[in-house]
Amino acid sequence: MTTHPLLTELTLRARTEAHSRSSSACPCGANTLADRPDATVVRHADTVAKAHAPDTAPADLAPRLAAAAHLPGILLPPLADTPVDLHGRLVTFWPYGEPVDPQNPDAAPWQAAAILLAHLHRTPAPPGLPPMRGPAKAALAMARLLSTSRRRHAVPVLRAWRTLPSWARAETPMSDTTTLCHGDLHLGQLVRHPAPDGPWRLIDVDDLGVGEPTWDLARPAAWYACGLLPPDDWSRFLGAYRAAGGPAVPAEGDPWPALDVAARALTVQTAARAIAKATEAGRALDDVEQAVVDACDRMGSTPPELADGFAK
What we know:
Elements: H1 5-20, E1 30-36, E2 39-44, E3 47-51, H2 58-70, E4 84-86, E5 89-95, E6 98-99, H3 110-122, H4 134-146, H5 151-162, E7 180-181, E8 190-192, E9 200-202, E10 209-210, H6 214-225, H7 231-243, H8 256-281, H9 287-301
Antiparallel strand pairs: 1-2, 2-3, 3-5, 4-5, 6-8, 7-10, 8-9
Helix pairs in contact: 3-7, 4-8, 5-8, 5-9, 6-7, 6-8, 8-9
């Protein structure tokens, strides 16, 4: 396997940054945590270097980094406020945090995630933050789907997409322009810092911005509606968010009138990405992927006013 120049240079920079912050000998080499077109991430000891997506605008990344630096109780703060340029990519440096263990779903920190989101949503947004990128990422997932050839599976997803309001399809601005949002909440966006037993913190500022806070609750809501998240986990997540004063849903009563649009959008996004990945790999959809596509089929055939919880 050939190592591309960006990964080689990023590995070197992660090592240099790690050694500059510690006088002790470093027994471990670098590990590649991710190497995708939209992000390359390398860890060396207690330091993580991330090359952001090629189209990342410095004017958008700078206020997002500043927000993380000023909210260390919620977001993992960067090691430096200013990114560097490597091979035309913006690179940032972060302390290493222990991620959620994917092999231990019973220990998934849903309550911690909910509390962090509630605190984030209640924090006044720093000036200069761009819009939260959630709807834009959903639109990108649909564009990727349309470039594949698996049309039979795509039909219910496209039909469900058309039922969404224009803001959820990134065609018009979001009405909320003041609430601070993460933009891409899932369990992979939480780490313990200091590792391995420190408090949970949110990571990944690429989608951070102002917008509709329901988007940050939408993925667990969608998983619950699709039957992929146990009711007890959903109840703990929602209850913790409400108890912490989260503003995205009413303090009591049915949350679905508030969550419905964003949860539908995340379901469509997840299904679109699943079909595209399966098509590119030349394989059939697995059971989880098919469940999300089936949820889109229900969404597209049910009037929105009757579809709380996707007619589960």
